[in-house]
């Protein structure tokens, strides 16, 4: 089921629309009739003030008529086209930073009703490398954003900070992009720098991960211990290996040592998908220190260089 704000928008849209329609069909004709009778009895044309006294329009109807077009447009845009999100954490660094405001393409993975989120129209499927927003499988009140790494039927291995993918290939298919069918493909990593980002006192290594058709940068903490004992244990596989079930996806954060993702809790069901993150439309710095007079939520600057498409 959708979040409270989405439900509120739908209820407000339907409620204001029904009030407008009810007035238009039942009460507006009676007001016009009273005005016509008064106009016929008067030798002079009635001005607006007199008409308002003879047949006043209820305030609730006036309000409904004024907000319905705007609320309906917002509901349609937010439910079926694009929805804005704010990035609240660093799990997708360096692709997305805390303080980024993004647009999520809602129709990318199918058109769903805005309340129950049941599929109305099939549009497309997630592709490997997409940055996707989805309802957290363990608590669907929470929205997560991660990168799609594994598609249905793929075999995924994440071992010693290295990603391997054995793609699910159709019979007779030899290759999927740069991934060779029938074997585990080691995804190439190239170091970008070692001192741009920090986790506490520990420097993070920035690398380019050459995921097929979607090369992107990730962060690795070489000093952090791999907590494989916390990994989601799938029946019939080793602890750091997974086979993606049908109609499900394997998602990981780009900040590999600071992300709660499919390695820890399993797979993203297709019905939990919200949309594809496609654009950063605003990005703020929040650098108010403990000695600042301003609260932490007040931005200290705008990162204009971050605005643009999400890779």
From TrEMBL:
Its EC number(s): 3.4.21.89
Organism (species): Pseudoalteromonas byunsanensis
Subcellular locations according to the entry: Cell membrane; Membrane
InterPro entries, per the entry: LexA/Signal_pep-like_sf, Pept_S26A_signal_pept_1, Pept_S26A_signal_pept_1_Lys-AS, Pept_S26A_signal_pept_1_Ser-AS, Peptidase_S26, Sign_pep_all-beta_subdom
Highest taxon listed in the record's lineage: Bacteria
SUPFAM superfamilies for this protein: LexA/Signal peptidase
GO molecular function: serine-type endopeptidase activity; signal peptidase activity
Active-site positions on this chain: 91, 146
Annotated Gene Ontology cellular component terms: plasma membrane
Topology versus the membrane: Multi-pass membrane protein
Protein family membership: Belongs to the peptidase S26 family.
Protein name: Signal peptidase I
Domain Peptidase S26: 62-282
Enzyme class, UniProt record, top EC level: hydrolase
Biological processes annotated in GO: signal peptide processing
Keywords from the named record: Cell membrane, Hydrolase, Membrane, Protease, Transmembrane, Transmembrane helix
Recorded catalytic activity of this chain's protein: Cleavage of hydrophobic, N-terminal signal or leader sequences from secreted and periplasmic proteins
Transmembrane segments: 6-27
């Amino acid at each position: 089921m959708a979040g409270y704000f989405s439900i509120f928008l739908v209820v407000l849209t339907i409620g204001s629309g029904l009030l407008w329609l009810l007035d238009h069909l039942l009460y507006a004709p009676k007001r016009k009739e009273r005005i016509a009778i008064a106009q016929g009895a008067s030798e002079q044309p009635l001005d607006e003030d007199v008409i308002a006294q003879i047949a006043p329009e209820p305030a609730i109807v006036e309000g409904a008529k004024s907000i319905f077009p705007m609320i309906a447009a917002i509901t349609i845009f937010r439910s079926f086209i694009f929805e804005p999100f704010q990035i609240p954490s660093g799990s997708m660094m360096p692709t997305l930073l805390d303080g980024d405001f993004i647009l999520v393409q809602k129709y990318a993975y199918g058109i769903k009703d805005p309340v129950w989120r049941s599929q109305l129209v099939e549009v497309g499927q997630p592709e490997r490398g997409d940055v996707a927003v989805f309802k957290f499988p363990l608590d669907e009140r929470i929205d997560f954003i991660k990168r799609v790494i594994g598609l249905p039927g793929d075999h995924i291995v994440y071992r010693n900070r290295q990603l391997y993918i054995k793609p699910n290939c159709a019979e007779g298919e030899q290759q999927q992009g740069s991934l060779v069918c029938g074997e585990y493909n080691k995804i190439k990593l190239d170091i970008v720098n070692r001192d741009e980002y920090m986790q506490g006192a520990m420097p993070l290594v920035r690398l380019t991960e050459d995921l097929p058709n979607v090369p992107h940068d990730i962060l690795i903490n070489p000093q952090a211990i791999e907590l494989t004992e916390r990994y989601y244990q799938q029946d019939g596989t080793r602890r750091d290996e997974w086979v993606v079930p049908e109609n499900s996806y394997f998602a990981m954060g780009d900040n590999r040592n600071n992300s709660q993702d499919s390695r820890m809790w399993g797979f993203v069901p297709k019905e939990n998908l919200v949309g594809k993150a496609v654009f950063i439309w605003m990005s703020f710095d929040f650098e108010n220190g403990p000695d600042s007079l301003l609260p932490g939520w007040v931005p200290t600057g705008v990162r204009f260089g971050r605005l643009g498409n999400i890779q």
